[in-house]
Amino acid sequence: MESKEEKIEALRKAIDNAENIVFFGGAGVSTESGLPDFRGEQGLYRKKYGLPPESYFSIRLLKYDPEEFFKFQRKRILGYDVKPNAAHLKLTEWEKQGKLRAIITQNIDGLHQAAGSKNVIELHGNTKHCHCMRCNKSYKISAIMETEGVPRCKICHGIIKPDTVLYGEKLDVRLLKKATDHIRKADMLIVGGTSLTVNPAVSLVHEFRNKPFVLINIGLTPMDDRADIRIYDKIGQVFSEL
Ligand code: CNA
Asked: Where does the Deacetylase sirtuin-type domain start and stop, copy by copy (predicted)?
């Protein structure tokens, strides 16, 4: 079995040789910035909040108990103040060098853009903005954070919802297509900080038929067998060694 140093060296070489890297990531990319993930050791799914964890991120809760939905969003999901970590910054560096073509993320925290990355495909939306569910008017997230109870549109009194994709909602097909195109053309796919369990986002990874497929994650994932280089460690830590 290869040592960690040997794997990092193999990764370094692969990155040097690549010209069209695509990164596919998840909540684990931001844990080193201080944001909890869902399914990791310290993840939100390990906490007891009353309802089953997925309910708090569902369109169902927003529809049937909006008070509870917004209470949870304000306390646990929105309005954090964190900074990009070494993983976000390294990806930005590769993009500036012309090596990395796209970041496809399941994250909703906007940290890739905060690090300066440009081509970021946010499959599950983001927590920076929100919109009226009735007339679609856009608002800043302060429309939720600086109000109480169920936030309402100034124009039509519809409910204002964060621009995140909740369980039970469909992903934007244009974004899925864009992400698929990038992955099919890539000459290297780096997957990191994701449990690879949430579809249809994860099905995108199957579109990569090239080599090398790199996986950097603390825990095991359902696609470990497919990876040409597998590193079980913190992604910010690994990237800072490159
Ligand atoms: P997940 O299911 O919580 O999995 C995270 C994975 O990352 C786990 O396998 C962890 O072991 C691993 N992990 C945690 N920290 C690190 C680290 N430092 N380095 C490497 N691996 C690490 O999250 P997924 O992204 O797979 O699931 C998709 C959900 C999570 C999306 O719908 C997101 O919106 C949602 N989410 C996003 C954020 C965010 O935007 N920061 C936070 C929490 C959840």
From this structure: 1-242
